[in-house]
Design a protein that fits this description.
Radius of gyration of chain B: 16 Å
Helix content of chain A: 10-25%
Number of strands of chain A: 47
Largest sheet of chain B: 3 strands, antiparallel
CATH class of the largest domain in chain A: Alpha Beta
CATH topology of the largest domain in chain A: Rossmann fold
Shape of chain A: globular
Shape of chain B: flat
Helix content of chain B: 40-55%
Structural class of chain A: mainly beta
Radius of gyration of chain A: 28 Å
Largest sheet of chain A: 9 strands, mixed
Number of helices of chain A: 10
Distance between the termini of chain B: 30 Å
Largest interface: A-B, 48 and 41 residues
Oligomer: heterodimer
Strand content of chain B: 5-15%
CATH architecture of the largest domain in chain A: 3-Layer(aba) Sandwich
CATH superfamily of the largest domain in chain A: Class I glutamine amidotransferase (GATase) domain
Number of strands of chain B: 3
Distance between the termini of chain A: 72 Å
Number of domains of chain B: 1
């Protein structure tokens, strides 16, 4: 019997009361589920806190839903729009492509380009066989004729490949020529490798031409177990310019194409100039056929564009500078940016819904086999009214969505200093290939995943989720500790998400006197960073309630906020690194990597920035001399003694996981006060790579003073101010002792002051001699 | 990066790595004593003595398929020790029937397995 499983996602994650939201659900082992709208209040099950808390909310959609198993097409590919079937050859033809396989000997067949239906054995294709050899094949419905190259394709090397088919003689020739240069591939000229092959055969028949077969790049037509059309034989690697002719070209003509000249012969049927249509602000999903028939191709599961091409000579590192050298489109058979499931229910949200984090809770099954799923979304107010806003760092949730570092990344355990603690959902996620990867993972061909999406179930954007490599609640489950604290403290607040900030800019924040960040607001687009800076400079009061914030660049395409892009480079923490020349985001042309390298260190925005990170025991803060200063002593009012945050749900302390510190050399505003600092961190905490020029023994917690968190405060223009807590674990110290603790008291003092209508406390103390209490 | 799974039969540096590991294990075996094991039992995630840290650093650097992890059967209540597959899509396998009532106890059970592997190879 199939175990009962329920998985779901929404069409959008930021909605307002009264608006419509679609739920896409896939079910296994059941055809019904009980739906209940809930508001999520606390997400960490740790028994030292309030535990998991949700509140059921009345909604017309509550009740029994019909659910079914839905199909997910995994893998990126391009489909050519060919309504007149010009690529269904009835006479001689030639196909050619520049290709750069990243996993040729994958053990599975791969189609590079072709009009091939593998189930019906109809059509033709150029691809790679199970052993990593280039192959051309064709069929008319019965047997498949194949022509294979004589030498295997080398991984991460560029080739020009072509097949010519003479309809009269049925003579078929397969060409393979290496086009590697000093920069564009894995191996140099010194490697003794045979790249060239030319093989010929006389085929018995012309390829067949089913009307239903699409011309695809990086895959071919197939059917799943239910006979639904899908794409399989997916390709791992890059494809650059490619095309087709309605004649069998001669070798000299193929040489012309290989010499970088755009083919002009009358017999040209299609020529996909993969670098056409680039702009400085991004590249779309349509690959342009510059031939006469305009047989454009559209990307599925977002093939990675703007990659270095076969003719890249290494002089420029960005597609904006020499687009013609960046025609590489990269495909992965395990890419997923949209499950494309049918909508299970379309729900009109109640008009009176309080702003907050919500989920449609779905349940099915009995006893121990109950399956429960929380499909999470965020409700903004219809019109902002509260003085406080909590900003859910949804872009960071997306970056980590469905990460499997504990299973796959050889360095993860060394980085966290502890063994992974895996839950059943982690193991299930690892076993399945239909929920996609995170931007922390690598595709199976070893290349980093640069797109993540919420149009798929996101297992770690759920309450109760614990990150296995750190064994703490993380992401949403951790941020809900701030929501529970706001609720418990009686503050009126509203919520918004990163995608609102990206879209609306500082207008998303300006209605609020005080904005509170999440515990790890790590990934920021330029628009989001600008909006935050403008908000603070314009008099906004910002609480950076975490650590490792504003650190990494990210991209969101207008109108498609469910997909984020991430490229990795330079000296920041990174689970993988983009290849040289591929550091710029196809989404918006921005350079990927840490913001610090681009002149926007976190210290410039909020006073502190990443000093170190690690796992294991967290530490506490001790008050620093500045905290007694009359301009800021209100922050620690009511704190008994020197210690702040000596307990927490994240390893028993408020300073842990990732720590931020004050650094004037990185742009901390000159008048910033250090309210409290942590210390005594274990050697699992290592100085941020971005702060050192060399690696050496002693960059660890008990050796290097920089391994600590600073809690800071500074006033900004027009009555603005920033309070920074200094650590990812800080938020998880709030719920300790039913929210009665020093960390909670400090944050309460700040929120109360920031949300107040008047000037900030301490403003009247201006003369230096009067400033110490 | 090369594919996560590729034919390593031609990788000559595996011999170098194995030789290094052999020397390393020989030395690490001399560090194992009741004090080190007791230190870990008391503080699996704290600051460690040099001897214990050296052992832990080695365990954390083992190839993925030789690595252990803790499985939370029921968070904060019941845990087991499992061994990673090192192969995407293949789940970890259970190493024995021992059930631990805290993550820290399970971490120590995992540590003892690593020590046993070290002493036996």
């Amino acid at each position: 019997m199939t175990p009962v499983r329920l998985f779901g996602y929404t069409d959008r994650i930021s909605v307002k009361p009264g608006e419509t939201i679609q739920f896409h659900v896939s079910a296994e082992g059941t055809d019904t589920a009980e739906a209940q709208l809930v508001r999520l209040i606390h997400g960490d099950q740790n028994p030292s806190g309030p535990g998991f808390v949700e509140e059921e909310v009345a909604c017309t959609a509550n009740g029994r839903w019909r659910v079914e198993r839905q199909f997910t097409q995994v893998g990126s590919f391009l489909e050519v729009d060919d309504p007149e079937a010009r690529l269904a050859f009835t006479n001689s033809f030639t196909l050619f492509a520049f290709v750069h396989p990243t996993w040729p000997a994958s053990g599975k067949r791969q189609t590079i380009i072709g009009r091939w239906d593998g189930d019906r054995k109809q059509g033709y294709g150029i691809g790679i066989d199970e052993k990593g050899y280039l192959q051309f094949w064709s069929g008319r419905g019965e047997e498949i004729e194949r022509l294979t190259a004589t030498v295997p394709l080398q991984v991460q090397m560029w080739y020009f490949v072509a097949v010519t088919f003479d309809a009269e003689t049925r003579r078929t020739t397969l060409h393979q020529v290496g086009v590697g240069n000093r920069y564009n591939g894995l191996l140099g000229k010194v490697a003794l490798v045979d790249y060239e092959s030319r093989s010929s055969a006389t085929f018995r028949s012309m390829p067949g031409n089913l009307a239903s077969t699409p011309f695809l790049m990086a895959g071919s037509r197939s059917r799943d177990a239910q006979q639904r059309a899908c794409v399989s034989e997916l390709y791992w690697g890059k494809i650059d310019r490619c095309g087709a002719f309605g004649q069998a070209l001669q070798s000299a003509e193929l040489d012309t194409i290989r010499s970088e000249l755009v083919p002009t012969m009358d017999s040209l049927v299609a020529y996909w100039d993969t670098s056409a249509g680039y702009t400085d602000r991004g590249i779309g999903d349509v690959v342009v056929d510059v031939g006469r028939y305009k047989l454009n191709a559209r990307g599925y599961n977002r093939p990675v564009r703007g990659q270095t091409g076969w003719n890249w000579d290494g002089f420029t590192d960005c597609f904006r500078l020499a687009p013609q050298e960046f025609g590489g489109i990269e495909f992965h058979a395990d890419a997923l940016t949209d499950c494309n499931w049918k909508a299970t229910e379309t729900v009109v949200l109640p008009h009176g819904l309080k702003s907050g984090c919500y989920a449609m809770r779905l349940r099915s099954g009995w006893g121990k086999s109950v399956s429960e799923e929380h499909v999470v979304f965020f409700v903004r107010p219809r019109r902002p009214r509260a003085r406080i806003a909590f900003l859910f760092p949804t872009l960071t949730y997306l970056a980590f969505a469905n990460e499997r570092l504990s299973f796959d990344h050889p360095e993860r355990e060394a980085l966290t200093g502890q063994s992974a603690v895996l839950s059943d959902i982690d193991i299930e996620m690892y076993m399945r290939n239909d929920f996609g990867l995170s931007t922390y993972d690598m595709h199976a061909d070893g290349n980093g995943v640069c797109y993540s999406s919420y149009h798929r179930p996101v297992m770690n954007m759920r309450p109760r989720y614990r990150m296995p490599s750190l064994d703490v609640a993380s992401g949403l489950a951790a941020d809900l500790s701030i929501i529970a604290w706001l609720d418990h403290s009686g503050f009126e607040y509203e919520v918004l998400t990163d995608e609102d900030l990206h879209r609306d800019g500082s207008e998303a924040l300006s209605p609020y006197a005080c904005v509170i960040s999440g515990s790890r607001p790590e990934y920021y687009t330029e628009q989001m960073l600008d909006a935050t800076e403008d908000y603070i400079a314009g008099g906004g009061r910002y609480i950076y309630a975490g650590g490792n914030g504003f650190n990494a660049t990210a991209g969101i395409r207008d109108g498609e906020p469910w997909i984020m892009e991430c490229r990795r480079r330079d000296d920041g923490y990174k689970p993988w690194v983009s290849r040289y020349g591929e550091h710029y985001m196809a989404t918006d042309g921005m350079r990927g990597g840490p913001w610090k390298v681009l002149g926007r260190a976190t210290q410039k925005l909020v006073g502190i920035g990443l000093s170190s990170s690690g796992g294991g025991r967290s530490e506490l803060y001790r008050r620093m001399p500045d905290s007694y200063h009359r301009t800021v002593s209100w922050i620690t009012k009511g704190v008994d003694g020197e210690i702040i945050g000596d307990a927490g749900l994240a390893n028993d302390g408020a300073a842990g996981l990732a720590l931020d510190y004050y650094d004037r050399a990185l742009g901390t505003p000159p008048h910033t006060k250090i309210i409290a600092s942590s210390g005594g961190h274990t050697d699992s905490y290592v100085v941020n790579q971005q702060l050192v020029l060399y690696s050496y023994l002693g960059l660890y917690g008990s050796y290097d003073w920089r391994v600590h968190a600073d809690m800071t405060y500074f006033t900004a223009p027009h009555g603005g101010a920033v309070f920074a807590c200094g650590s990812v674990a800080f938020a998880q110290s709030l719920p300790i002792n039913n929210f009665r603790n020093n960390a909670s008291r400090v944050l309460g003092n700040v929120v109360e002051a920031f949300a107040g209508a008047g000037r900030l406390p301490g403003f009247a103390w201006v003369n230096e001699e009067k400033q110490w209490a | 990066m090369l594919p996560l799974e590729y034919d390593r039969s031609e990788d000559r540096d595996i011999i170098v790595r194995d030789r290094f590991d052999g020397f390393r294990r020989e030395y690490l075996r001399t560090l194992v004593n009741p004090e080190v094991i007791e230190e870990h039992r008391q503080s699996a995630l704290g600051q460690h003595s040099e001897k214990l840290e050296r052992l832990l650093i080695y365990f954390r650097q083992r190839p993925l398929e030789q690595r252990y992890a803790v499985r939370a059967i029921e968070p904060f209540r019941r845990y087991q020790v499992v061994r990673l597959s090192g192969r995407r899509g293949v789940p970890p396998r259970l190493v024995d029937g021992a059930i631990y009532t805290s993550a820290n106890d399970a971490r120590h059970g995992l540590f003892l397995r690593c020590i046993r592997d070290l002493l036996e190879t």
